[in-house]
Every structure is written in C-alpha cells, then in structure tokens.
Amino acid sequence: MDATVVAIAGDGGDAGHRRPLLASDDEIRPHPESPSPQTEDAKPGQKPPRVASLDVFRGLTVAMMILVDDAGGAWPGINHSPWFGVTVADFVMPAFLFIIGVSAALVFKQKTPNKTVATKKAAIRAIKLFVLGVILQGGYIHGRHSLTYGIDLDHIRWLGVLQRIAIGYFLAAISEIWLVNNIAVDSAISFVKKYFMEWIMAIIISALYVGLLFGLYVSNWEFKVQTGNSTLTFPTTSNEVGIMMIQCGVRGSLGPPCNAVGFVDRLLLGENHLYKNPVYKRTKECSVNSPDYGPLPPNAPDWCLAPFDPEGLLSTLMAAVTCFVGLHFGHVLVHCKTSATLLLPQDHSPRMLLWLLASTVFTVSGFLLQLLGMPFSKPLYTVSYMLLTGGVSGFLLLVLYYIVDVVNIKKPFILFEWMGMNALIVYVLAACELFPALVQGFYWRTPENNLVDATESLLQIIFHSKRWGTLVFVLLEIIFWCLAACFLHMKGIYLKL
C-alpha cells in the first residue's frame, strides 16, 4: 500500500523503473502507471492495459480550474455562481473529489495486510496535503500582481481546496481500509455486501450535514471590517475598524448571512481565519456589476462585507461524500471485468452500463431535491449540488473512458493526459500562481513591466478586447502547462505527495 492517492496526482501502482524527481522515496515518488482493474485478464509477463481516461480526467479538471480561475473575472459566465445555481466552474471542485474516490478504489483494491500501518500512511499523506494547502492558500503566498509574501498568523486561512481534498481523501482511504468486507465479489449481491458499510457511512455523513444545516440555531452575530471605501450604515474615517451586526435568529436559512455553514466556521475557526472575498459579493445585493465583483449598490446589506469560507468545515464534510461517489465508480471499474465476445475482443458494456445507471440516478436525484426545496449551492455544498455534480462527473468519466480506453482515440486528449500525469505540480505552480508570481518578480523598472502582464496586455491589444485577449492568454497558459507536463513525462519526473 505504498501508492499515494491524491485527486490531482497518481493512482498508485508499481513504477520503480521510472526516475524519481528527488532522492527521498518517502516524500516524492515517480508517477505510476494508472492501475488496471483487469490484471487477471492480462497474459503472464504482460503488463496490464492502462486506464488512460483517468489521467485525461485529471488533466481536464486541472485545465478547467486554470480556465475558470484566470478567465472567470473577464468572463463572469464561466465563473462560480454567486450563491445559488451552478456554472461550469462549479463542477471543477467536485470533479477533483470524484477522481480521488476512483483512485482510492483502485489503490485499495487488494486486501490491506496491516490496517493500522495503512491508516498511518493515509493520515500522513492527508496531513502533508493539508499543510501544503495552508502554505499555498492560507495567505502566505500573495499570488500574481504581488511581489510580497507572509501572513499574520492571527489571520491565516486554515481551509482551502487542497485542505478539502486532504480531508476527502482521508475519509475515503479510512473507509476503504476499515469498512470494506473481506468477501469475494462474484455477483451483484456480493458487491453490495462488500461495500455496504461505505454507503452507510456516506448516508450518515449526509444526514449529519442536513441535520446541522437545518437544525442549528443561528443567532445574531457581528464582525469587524475596514470601513474605508465601503458603503456602510454609519460614517467612519478611512482607517477605522467598524463593527457590523447581522440580524439572524433563525434555523434552516440557506441565504448568505444566516446559514449554519458560516455559523460553524465562525464558531470553530473564528472570523479572522475565514476567506475575506466570498463569492456572494457578486450577488445583486452586493455588486452593481453582478454577477461580477463591483462596488456596493446603495443600501447594500451589511453582510456583503462579511467573511465566508467556501471550503468551510460543514461544507467540506458534505463534499467528502463526493469521494464516496467516486469510490463506487472505482469499485465498478475493479470488479466489473471486461470479457471477450464474438464481435469485440473486450466487452466494456457491463461496466459502462453500470456507470450510466449510477450517473443518471445521482443527476436525477439532484434535480428532484432541488424541486423539493434544496437548491444547488457550491458555497454550502448542498446535497442536491453534491448529487448533481457527482452524476455529471460520472457522465464525464463514462464518455472519456469510452473514447480513450474503449475506442482507443487518445491523440486528441494527449495534452490532458500529460497534464493528468503531473497534475499536482501543475496545480501548485499554475492554479496557485507560484510560477506567474516568480516570473513577475523579474521586471523592467516598474513591477508592472513584466513578461506575464506584458503578454496578456499584448493579446488584449491584438484582439481589441480585454475579454478575448484574456481568454486567449489563459488558453495559451493551459497549453504551456500541458507541454511542460509532457517534458516532465518524457524525463520520467512525476511529483506526488
């Protein structure tokens, strides 16, 4: 069980023939071949076929994250939904969690000889990923357009994307280690018996989330805000810290100011450690440029200035269930073997039909819950949102699996496959803006005269449009990272935790 599972890294397996990035075998390992669930079908001495669609899925997910993060400001239509509803951007985070579940099912497909040791390794990997997330997304790295770094520990942000992935991975790994029954799968009934407890765990987590979301009493609360250049309910000097009071006193509210998700974070993490630029600042109540960020409209509610963490504790608990959805798809991949027929050397239809059925059930259930009054909301990570995005992720995996692994059309997706093989390093350098910040550190006379900003400005001039110039710049950025991942792949260098 030495293989690491990270949603944006590899799936585990043996790849000792590749050259590692660093000498430390415990910290960074070479990317393994994506494990095949068909090891029994391979001839003796022959390496089993690789499930390339998993790499493509990972690479496509990272590329979409770069696209929506860097181009979402110029194209609000592909940016995250301000509060309720879903856009293209809102499917990216669940896709990360979904593929981590699929990967966990493949890594832990064999019986764990020592559950305590396996649990320790899973915990260490989750902690390393969590710490990396705090460093990259806790405020220490100021990102693009800033040549400074550092964070006041009294205001560090403890949660973020990588931290959510770490928690989701840990729960999925623990479930695979401790909750899977040690029985052979030779029928649909035995399949259900083997993984029955994992679904019970997913249901318990969902029930706990729903109970807290609708059952917690959210009292009136206050927060501090720098009042300069803000539309407030009372006059202040430019550097004064104002105290804002939010009137709640309700249960079951799903709106921005009085929901249980924010209440739990303020109670357990503290106001200072939450995200300071929440997505609801792009709602009509909080922005004259909605659905984009903008100045506060007249008589804007005070909660428009309040912090809120989109990767908070309660929403992350629900997000972990998406990993369990991925586990199910991975289990189907492991146990539903392909078989030869008169027409095809391998018949993938049973596996694909089960995926199609599961994806349909999840998606339809999400829409039904919305009709029953639970809206789609990424910031809250509502159950309806989890079901919808989990189902869509299943459909995407099904389509990619059919094209890449069944029909064997790989060339159009080779860029994403390369990126998927080294998704972690691409995410850290590109999506977390480490590389752009490094390049911007070299400038001519003033910090604005750097290669990154100059390239983007040039493209905006060429296309006579800030929006189209930015979009082309981001697409070129994605291609650049695909080619960088290709270079690392050819050198046999793969970064993993």
Automatic annotation (TrEMBL):
<dbReference type="InterPro" id="IPR012429">
    <property type="entry name" value="HGSNAT_cat"/>
</dbReference>
<protein>
    <recommendedName>
        <fullName>Heparan-alpha-glucosaminide N-acetyltransferase catalytic domain-containing protein</fullName>
    </recommendedName>
</protein>
<keyword id="KW-1133">Transmembrane helix</keyword>
<keyword id="KW-0812">Transmembrane</keyword>
<feature type="transmembrane region" description="Helical">
    <location>
        <begin position="468"/>
        <end position="488"/>
    </location>
</feature>
<keyword id="KW-0472">Membrane</keyword>
<feature type="transmembrane region" description="Helical">
    <location>
        <begin position="313"/>
        <end position="334"/>
    </location>
</feature>
<feature type="transmembrane region" description="Helical">
    <location>
        <begin position="91"/>
        <end position="110"/>
    </location>
</feature>
<feature type="transmembrane region" description="Helical">
    <location>
        <begin position="354"/>
        <end position="373"/>
    </location>
</feature>
<feature type="domain" description="Heparan-alpha-glucosaminide N-acetyltransferase catalytic">
    <location>
        <begin position="50"/>
        <end position="198"/>
    </location>
</feature>
<dbReference type="Pfam" id="PF07786">
    <property type="entry name" value="HGSNAT_cat"/>
</dbReference>
<feature type="region of interest" description="Disordered">
    <location>
        <begin position="1"/>
        <end position="50"/>
    </location>
</feature>
<feature type="transmembrane region" description="Helical">
    <location>
        <begin position="122"/>
        <end position="141"/>
    </location>
</feature>
<feature type="transmembrane region" description="Helical">
    <location>
        <begin position="385"/>
        <end position="404"/>
    </location>
</feature>
<feature type="transmembrane region" description="Helical">
    <location>
        <begin position="424"/>
        <end position="444"/>
    </location>
</feature>
<feature type="transmembrane region" description="Helical">
    <location>
        <begin position="161"/>
        <end position="184"/>
    </location>
</feature>
<feature type="transmembrane region" description="Helical">
    <location>
        <begin position="196"/>
        <end position="218"/>
    </location>
</feature>
